[in-house]
Amino acid sequence: MAQQYFYDKQIRRYIQQFIRLFSGFNVQMGKDDNNLPVYQKVPVRYGDINRMAAHITRENSENVVNSVPFISCYVTALNMLPERRTYQDYTEKVQVFEKRFDDETGKYSNERGNGYTIERHAPVPYMLQMNCDIWTSNTDQKLQLLEQILVLFNPTLDIRTSSSIVDWSALSHVEMTNTTWSTRSVGSSIDDIIDVSTISFDVPVHINPPAKIQQQKLIHTVINELYNLTDEDLDNFREELPFNKSTLEYTVVTFEQKKARYENGQLYLLNKDGTNLNDQGTILDWQEELLPFGVVRDGISQLRLRKGTDPGDKDNDIIGRLNINASDPNSLYVDIDETTLPANTLVAVNAIVDPTKNQPGDGTVPTAITGQRYIVLNDIPLNPAWTNLQAKRYDIIEYNGSAWVVSFDSSNINTTEYVTNVSSNDQLEWNGKEWLNSNEGVYNAGFWRLYL
């Protein structure tokens, strides 16, 4: 298959950024009638002056001299850079969200708009070699320009070729590698009144292949294929096993402008601002909001909570069965399926204790036996009951048969960890700062769904 055409002006942008490094320099050309210095800005352009170009700029005459001072920049080589090469088939996906555009006001709001998944491929590294020629008519001009330029490179200067937040090759640097004081030599054919000093640079560049961009589509209303499931078929449907589609009836609902909060086994409906009130100032009612789509069926309807940053990624959904809460219209009872929770990374703990108030054998905490494990809510004070253990808040301590020891040092662990609290049968998540219920919290639109 023929290669499709693409051109993103990537090398051109590197050259442009390189040229911009040398713009804005001045030289002093003398003094005016008031004895004040007179400065002349030095122009910078792309291209080396070959014989034909120089002849044209001198109007095809030997009696016209090129105007100086000026700076010219040009490419001398573009070579492969194998030491910077990575795995050529490597790809990375990035999720990007726009701000929502309000057609009525013509402005962007603080709400999330369209979402996109960008699949970018590994760039190809090259070394771009550039020369910078400094054209002057005398040594003083040369010294003025060189002093202003050379002080910038020690030996590198950073450049940025793109303002895109997903361009992983936007940053590079310019490294000075060599200087040639003068091109003049005995017998040179170059005009005696013009001197050229050359500075050489290396610029590592990355050339990116085209990226694949896909727009994420959130379900805002109903999936049109409606079925009615028995408990057995519902389990098979969830496990992606064969089921009786002739009796299946299912409506998938999420709201574009509403959030949901899961807490203590209950699901609360929230508006876009995070409160439980509708536009009229009354409590949001699940049954009213779901009326256009269907009703909650006790023990059959499902809740699916989606953690992460991609609302289209359903592989790690936390699933629970729903039941109506007759005493609170804003709440639904949820029975979480523990098999859908993230896998535990730590051995289960017996409970969460406050060591400043409780201790082993005091009636609230059992007498210490080998293997007991607790999450502590405060630093442990010097106490023989805890075998004078020194532990900090949120550590996990364990009894080894003769003494309490720290099994999980919270001050040195920044990775996400999961553990089950046996006393409450909750799964806890360590986020690097504190322990939280692994599935409780506020879920934005698109990250929660109801299967009615």
Note the main attributes of this structure.
six-stranded mixed beta sheet, 452 residues, eight-stranded antiparallel beta sheet, 5 helices, mainly beta, 36% strand, 26 strands
Strand percentage lies at 35-45%
Describe the strand arrangement of the main beta sheet, using strand numbers. Answer: 12-26-15-16-17-14-13-25
Q: Write down the Rg.
A: 35 Å
> Mean pLDDT score, rounded?
83
The low-pLDDT segments are 218-227
Secondary structure tally: strands: 26
Going by helix content, strand content and strand pairing, the class is mainly beta
Shape: elongated
Distance between the termini: 47 Å
Residues in helix, %: under 10%
Please provide a written account of the structure.
- With 452 residues, the chain is mainly beta.
- It is built from 5 helices and 26 strands.
- The strands form 6 sheets. Strands 12-26-15-16-17-14-13-25 form an 8-stranded antiparallel beta sheet, with no helix packed on it. Strands 3-4-7-10-9-8 form a 6-stranded mixed beta sheet.
- The chain is elongated.
- About 2% of the residues have low confidence.
Give the SSE layout.
Elements: H1 10-20, E1 26-31, E2 37-41, E3 44-46, H2 51-57, E4 70-80, E5 91-102, E6 107-121, E7 124-136, H3 139-150, E8 156-160, E9 171-180, E10 195-207, E11 212-216, H4 231-238, E12 252-253, E13 259-263, E14 266-270, H5 286-290, E15 302-305, E16 318-324, E17 331-336, E18 351-353, E19 373-376, E20 396-399, E21 404-408, E22 417-421, E23 426-430, E24 435-437, E25 441-443, E26 448-451
Parallel strand pairs: 3-4, 18-19
Antiparallel strand pairs: 1-2, 4-7, 5-6, 6-11, 7-10, 8-9, 9-10, 12-26, 13-14, 13-25, 14-17, 15-16, 15-26, 16-17, 19-20, 20-21, 22-23, 23-24
